[in-house]
Every structure is written in C-alpha cells, then in structure tokens.
Design a protein that fits this description.
Elements (H helix, E strand, L loop, with lengths): L9 E4 L13 H10 L5 E4 L2 E3 L3 H4 L13 E4 L2 E4 L2 E3 L9 H18 L5 E5 L1 H15 L3 E5 L2 H6 L2 H13 L2 E4 L2 H9 L7 E3 L14 H8 L6 E6 L8 H4 L3 H7 L3 E6 L9 H10 L6 E5 L6 H6 L3 E4 L8 H8 L4 E4 L4 H4 L6 E4 L4 H13 L4 H10 L2 H20 L3
Parallel strand pairs: 1-2, 1-7, 2-5, 3-6, 7-8, 8-9, 9-10, 11-12, 11-14, 12-13, 14-15, 15-16
Antiparallel strand pairs: 4-5
Helix pairs in contact: 1-17, 3-4, 4-6, 13-16
Length: 408
C-alpha cells in the first residue's frame, strides 16, 4: 500500500484501449500500463471518436465505431471514455486538436483531484499530439509512446507536421522498437529523452500447455500440422497473404490446419473476404476461424499449434510474438517495423521480406518440417518478461515528475 501512495500519479492517455464494445482494442496498452499500476497509481482516459451522424452510418456499417460506456473500472483502475469529434475518413489533421479540446475538462478535473502528475500518451498522433496540448494547458509533463502508426503518419503530408510537433514537444519519448526511435530522432526528438522500451510478456499467463490436451479441447487431430495467426481481422495483419499459400503447403503436409484467432477491430473487419477466399480455394477443411478470444485463453490455443505466422504489413513491437514464443512456438513473419528486433535469432523463427510470397511459402514449409527447440524459444520469452520493462518505465516517469517538481 505504501508504494501505491507514491508519486507520480499517471494518466494513461490512449484512444485505443479495451472496452465492452471493443474488448481486444489496445490490449497491449493495458497489459503494459496495468503492470505499472502495481507500483504507481494510474487513471485512464481513452478518447473515443464520435460525430453527429454516427448512428445513421451504422445502418450501413453495423460495426462502425461501437461506443463504450463513458466510465468503468477495469481491475480496480478508473477508465474514462470521453467523446471527441472525428469525421470518418476526412479532416484527420484536426483529430488531435479536437481530441485535446474534448478531453481537457476530464483531465483538468482529474488533476484537481490529485490523480494526475504525468501524462503517458500512446501513439504520437492523434493521442500524443493532443497530450502535448493538455500538458501545456495544465502544466503537466508528457511522455509519448511510439507504437508503429508513426511510420505511416510520417509519410502522410496532412499529418507529418503534427507528428513532428508531438515528438518535439514531449518531455519523454518511449519507442517500442529501434526503428521508431530512429524515426523520432529524425523528427527532432531530444536524444537524451528518447528511449527504446519494447513490450514484454506475462510468462505466468503464457506458458505451454500439453499439446495433446490443447488439441483435444479444440477438436484437432493429434497428427495434424498446425499454423496459427492471432490479430485483428484487418488487411494489415495479412491473413490473406497466408491463405493462398496453403494449397502448395498441403502437397507436402496434407494434414495441415490453419487457425485464425481474432475479430473486428477499430481498423475494420475483413472476415467475410477471408472466408470467401477460403471457399474459392477449397480450403474449408483446412482453415478454421476461431473468432476473438479472451487474452487469458490464448495460451491454450497457441499451445495447440506448431508454428506461429503473421504476414503483417506494419507493426511496432508485436506482443503476440513473445506470447507465442512463451508457449514454445517459432515465429514466421515479415520484415516490417520492429519484427526483426523480436524474432532476432534463427532458433526463434524467420523474418522474410514483405510482399515476397515465395520467401514466405518457403519459410513456412521449412518451419513445419523443422524440429524446433521449444525450451530455447520459451527461455527467450522469459528474458523478455514484463518486470524488466516496467522497471525502466518507472524510472522514466519518476524522473519526469522530479524534473517538474524538484527533489523532495
């Protein structure tokens, strides 16, 4: 209890955060920051996009922007979901400003209640950009965590300027990969206040199940060869890049099964297109859509597989790679974002050039035939468990608070 009373009190500021409406959105933010909450008090403000005709748009797109409650508690942490004006597909350069304006009253109230000393924003735009305004208005230091979208925003003329301002104004930049750190420095971030702190893994939650048991619970044959992907049902995650490779893989592995775990996300939902692709390729018996699953159920499902694959187009630092490795699985993925920093040794899997279909197919064929050392893969995940990451974050937040208030 004494440690819980310590300063600083953190405001986690992220528009991507789990809610009953979108339980898998931003789980990686919650996983990281709720571990910090074991050492420092936190509250969460999760700005939620809204515009006046949103309910009418849902008549055409039923899953468009499901709305969370305005407030709830998660694991004893207060989570607020204030609305901010955001028009779908247009005026994205104004999202950061609208976000700051719409959340100002909430953050000011929390500060006045003594619940906020430091703002910890996730994603540089619009969240980090908005947070730097709040920091100026309310005289609060701001940390901005870069998580991968920044690479795309840096190439978008309408957003690049705001991204640069967010990075330069922040008191602390935390990048989940070296690639993102380099981007921040190229945009003018202060090198002395820029640090790489990758994501971690809960090795008590993610551990291997007996494969026979995991398979029997899912109704999978003991002699099957099983690929698995976990992620939102969106183009970026690349399930549609794996499915067309299965017919050739089946020639060598006739008992091959591909498990896809995930559902709709804030980016969209392309399950219908994927199911159509599976049907057209006559793969219905070899591809199984498991839908979204609670985070605590993933270890059992991962343990039923032989190889994890994610042919992703963009990524920051994918928590799911370490989660798969903690269950003893090798990872096959694409050379984007921080993927090569996670899958950094041959005994952990293989990283192939993005868009190289033949290289991905060869890597999967080889991985399915390799006798992997699951214990070595698990050991690597243990080296990347959360406690070492949290220790660095705590030091950064405490230093920010001391710089703002002076040593006491």
């Amino acid at each position: 209890m004494a440690e819980q009373a310590q300063r600083p009190a953190l405001l986690v500021y992220s528009s991507l955060f789990p809610s009953p409406a979108q339980p898998s959105a931003g789980v990686f933010v919650r996983e990281r920051m709720f571990r910090v909450a074991a050492h420092l008090p936190i509250v969460v403000v999760a700005p939620t996009p809204w515009f006046p005709l949103q309910s009418l748009l849902r008549l055409i797109k039923p899953h468009f922007r499901p709305m969370p409650p305005r407030y709830l508690q998660q694991q004893g942490v207060d989570v607020w979901y204030p609305r901010y004006l955001s028009f779908p597909g247009i005026f994205k350069q104004w999202d950061g400003w609208f976000m700051a304006m719409s959340t100002y009253a909430t953050v000011r109230r929390l500060k006045r209640a003594g619940l906020v000393d430091v703002i910890d924003a996730h994603f540089a735009y619009p969240d980090g950009y908005a947070a730097t305004f709040l920091g100026r208005w309310l005289k609060l230091p701001v940390a901005v965590t870069l998580r991968g979208t920044e690479l795309r925003h840096a190439r978008t003329p309408a957003l690049a300027g705001a991204l640069k301002k967010a990075v330069q104004r922040a008191d602390q930049i935390i990048a989940v990969s070296s690639e993102l750190q380099h981007l921040a420095l190229s945009l003018g971030a202060d090198a002395a206040n820029t640090e790489v702190v990758g994501n971690g893994v809960d090795i008590s939650k993610f551990r291997p199940w007996p494969k026979e048991l995991a398979r029997s619970r899912l109704g999978i044959d003991a002699d099957a060869r099983v690929l698995i992907s976990v992620g939102g049902m969106v183009e970026r995650k690349g399930f549609h890049r794996v499915i067309p490779l299965l017919p050739d893989l089946l020639k060598v592995q006739p008992n091959l099964l591909y498990l896809i775990v995930g559902g709709a996300s804030a980016e969209g939902n392309n399950r219908a297109e994927l199911e159509k692709m599976v049907a057209e390729l006559n793969l219905v018996q070899h591809v199984r859509f498991l839908g979204p699953k609670p985070h605590e159920d993933l270890a059992e499902i991962l343990s039923a597989a032989d190889v994890f694959v994610l042919a992703t187009r963009a990524e920051g630092w994918a928590n799911v790679f370490l989660e798969a490795m903690a269950c003893g699985l090798p990872v096959i993925t694409t050379d984007v974002g921080g993927n090569r920093e996670v899958v950094c040794r041959p005994e952990l899997g293989e990283v192939v050039p993005f868009g190289d279909e033949k290289a991905l197919s060869r890597a999967l064929a080889s991985a399915l035939q390799t006798q992997w050392r699951s214990d070595e893969i698990r050991r690597y995940a243990e080296e990347n468990a959360w406690p070492c990451r949290v220790a660095v974050l705590l030091e950064k937040f405490r230093r920010m608070y001391t710089n703002q208030h002076g040593a006491h």
